[in-house]
Design a protein that fits this description.
- The structure holds two protein chains of two kinds.
- Chain A is of the alpha+beta class.
- Helix content of chain A is 44%, strand content 27%.
- Chain A has seven helices and ten strands.
- In chain A, helix 5 runs antiparallel to helix 6.
- Chain B is of the alpha+beta class.
- Chain B has helices at 11-20, 37-46, 60-80, 202-215, 337-356, 373-379; strands at 30-32, 89-99, 102-112, 116-121, 126-132, 136-143, 183-189, 194-199, 243-255, 263-274, 277-282, 287-293, 297-306, 313-322, 327-333, 361-363, 370-372.
- The chains are: A alpha+beta, B alpha+beta.
- Chains A and B meet through strand 1, helix 1, strand 6, helix 2 and strand 7 of A and helix 1, strand 1, helix 2 and helix 3 of B.
């Protein structure tokens, strides 16, 4: 069985260090340094971790995160790797050399990324709408929707159904327009307090709450107060909820460029 | 508001990050990268609430829009501009692109930064033109192409074939429909080229550009000499190719089609004599439809012929060219300039003959007396009075004696 190295992250440290048996399946985690960078790894076989049991996978993911966190705490700046990134060797190059070769080859690139995230952390910002509340607002704010709704109650059942369909369409349209406006407004308000941000796909959480915005923000590691205050204001708006998570290692800001 | 971290509630956030993100390693030694489908998919399926809300439908177009908007913003601000490179000015603009026979105004968005001027096409994310400020040697405002007397003097350089096709987009004229009023910013560049830029507010662009150049301590020429092409340099010329003579010319073109073999027709165009070739530019097709290296020009003769359907005879310039084995005649016509062309071309032929040091002799086909080929061709045989029959059909290989040469006729000077 060929050997490989499971990569947790790259850290800003040239030191050869042991982090202890904190890795996936209790494996020893250590560093492979090159100049002032190092890869935080454990020794494994050259095969990806797979499992049909989601509990097992969740456990691995939490462990992966735990190791990245530990390295983050120890070395200050890390470029976190995604789950299941394994570097192997070949006939002429042992895996440890492969890792070093990669660090050497990508050195400039990695340094650039290190500089970008140094002293910073990632925060997740998710903004939700309470659909019912927002729809109500739409009707109240738009005279023609309000009038249409009033008319419906005076119509016989069949006609009322058609009218209700029409009203729903109009509300939906107004909501989309509002979502557009809100998105831009929130984006600009949040942008002022962050170094960088990524727009992620909104997730469906439940029927009532609709996620309208899902951001990953790069913020000074202890500078989340400003952003927190801004989010508090949004959170206080009727019909809106904000979920603020972090600090995360900067997963979203190390992938490209 | 305080961020929350690593409770069970944030496992979803964590999975999102660990499976889709993180450092991407570009190496062939890697056996699997983050988010490997096997794991990602089976994990996602297992976890509740992991599918995106896009399935819900309501927000789909909106989601697409916002993401597209964000992509655009990112492209403009991040992919295009380096980090820490602020945009001083940004406006729609165009750059005149002329390479080979392709010439057009290309539209995009102009950005001025303290380092450079960039014209970027947002949709294709393509840089249409850019130059570092250091490269700018001269800045000048021009009212479209400079006006020139293109009609009066045939011998003066002229741009009529070079004038840009009108831009595809309508140019905001603000009531002024005279195209030549469109003002352009011309930048003389270090490499020797000149960039022509158009934008709605050229004055503002010029002002901002000069300001940032001044701030960088760069100097520039306020009235740079006009570039060569502005003097009528055609786009098809090679870089060092120089025009010795040029003018409007009709040319008897040959068209081949499956239905008619070698149909011939007079077409208007422009004849150029450069230091390496004689070529005729066919403006309608935007191409060089005839060319011959000057070395292959054997003779130029003047003839009176009927052109097209008119009864009046016109002067036609027959340029005999080709190798000794296969001679061809190309016919041109243009009012009075035929005479000038004939003289110039014959000077070239003569000069070449001199250079080669050969004096080709020919015998008179009628009496057999030996005479200098050129004299025989031009003035006829001094013994019996025979004169050379002018080529009757331009397409027939010329029944003309081989390259004439006569050092005595080498009166004028030729530029090569």
């Amino acid at each position: 069985m060929r050997e490989g190295r499971y990569i947790y992250c790259v850290a800003k440290s040239g030191e050869r260090a042991r982090l202890g048996p904190i890795g996936i399946e209790g494996l020893d985690v250590y560093t492979i340094p090159y100049r002032d960078l190092c890869a935080v790894v454990h020794t494994c076989s050259a095969e990806p971790y797979t499992s049909d049991d989601d509990k097992v996978v969740k456990g691995w993911i939490l462990t992966h995160q735990g190791v990245v966190e530990a390295a983050w705490k120890k070395f200050g700046t890390v470029l976190p790797g995604g789950f299941d990134t394994i570097i192997t060797g070949n006939e002429s190059t042992p895996p440890e050399e492969s890792v070093r070769g990669w660090l050497q080859e990508d050195y400039t690139h990695l340094q650039e990324k290190i500089e970008k995230v140094r002293g910073r952390a990632e925060y997740g910002v998710q903004i939700f709408w309470d659909q019912k509340v927002i729809a109500r607002q739409m009707v109240q704010d738009h005279k023609e929707l309000w009038e249409l709704e009033q008319e419906i109650s005076a119509k016989p059942d069949g006609t009322a159904y058609m009218y209700r369909q029409k009203l729903e369409r109009l509300i939906k349209k107004e909501m989309e327009a509002k979502a557009d406006r809100d998105f831009r407004e929130f984006f600009h308000r949040i942008k002022r307090h962050v170094h960088d941000l990524r727009i992620e796909k909104p997730k469906k959480v439940d029927e009532e709450m609709q996620m309208v915005m899902n951001l990953s923000c790069l913020v000074d590691r202890d500078g989340d107060e400003e952003l927190g205050e801004e989010l508090e204001k949004i959170h206080a708006t009727e019909g809106l909820r904000v979920r603020f998570t972090g600090p995360w290692p900067p997963y979203s800001f190390v992938a490209q460029g | 508001m305080e961020p929350v971290q690593l409770s069970r509630a944030t496992l979803v956030d964590l999975i999102d990050r660990l499976l889709d993100k993180g450092l991407v390693i570009h190496a062939d030694i890697i056996i699997s990268v983050a988010g490997i489908p096997l794991i990602g998919v089976n994990l996602r399926a297992a976890l509740a609430g992991m599918e995106t809300m896009l399935a819900y439908g309501v927000m789909q177009p909106w989601d697409e829009r916002t993401r597209a908007w964000e992509r655009e913003r990112r492209q403009r601000e991040e992919l295009l501009l380096k980090e820490g490179e602020p945009t001083l000015l940004s406006m729609p603009g165009a750059h005149y692109y002329a390479e080979g026979i392709c010439a057009a105004w290309r539209w995009g968005r102009l950005y001025l930064t303290p380092q450079r001027i960039v014209l970027h096409h947002g949709v294709f994310n393509e840089i249409l033109f850019q130059t570092p400020l250091e490269e700018i040697r001269g800045i000048a405002l021009q009212s479209g192409l400079p006006k020139r007397s293109t009609r009066t003097a045939e011998t003066s350089p002229c741009t009529s074939d070079r004038i840009a096709k009108p831009p595809l987009m309508s140019w905001p004229n603000r009531g002024d429909t005279h195209r030549s009023q469109t003002r352009e910013l011309w930048l003389t560049l270090g490499g020797g080229g000149t960039a022509r830029l158009r934008t709605r507010d050229v004055d503002r662009l010029k002002e901002a550009l000069e300001k940032s150049m001044a701030e960088r301590g760069l100097s520039w020429d306020e009235s740079p000499p006009p570039p060569a092409w502005a003097e009528g340099r055609p786009s098809f010329l090679a870089e060092n190719e120089e025009i010795a003579y040029e003018g409007k010319m009709w040319h008897l073109m040959t068209f081949s089609s499956p239905f008619e073999l070698n149909r011939v027709e007079w077409k208007p165009g422009r004849l150029y004599l450069t230091d390496s070739r004689l070529c005729w530019w066919y403006g309608f097709d935007q191409r060089v439809a005839f060319e011959v290296p000057i070395k292959k020009i054997a003779a130029a003769t003047k003839d009176m012929r009927r052109i097209g359907s008119t009864y009046k005879e016109k002067e036609v310039l027959d340029v005999v060219h080709g190798d000794d084995g296969l001679r061809r005649v190309a016919s041109f016509s243009s009012g009075r300039s035929v005479e000038v062309w004939e003289e110039i071309l014959n000077k070239i032929v003569t000069a070449q003959g001199t250079k080669a040091g050969s004096e080709e002799m020919e015998t008179c086909p009628q009496c057999g007396e030996e005479a200098q080929a050129r004299a025989l061709l031009e003035t006829g045989c001094s013994g019996c009075g025979w004169t050379s029959p002018r080529p009757q059909k331009s397409l027939a290989p010329a029944r003309v004696p081989p390259r004439p040469a006569n050092p005595q006729l080498d009166g004028g000077h030729v530029p090569w």
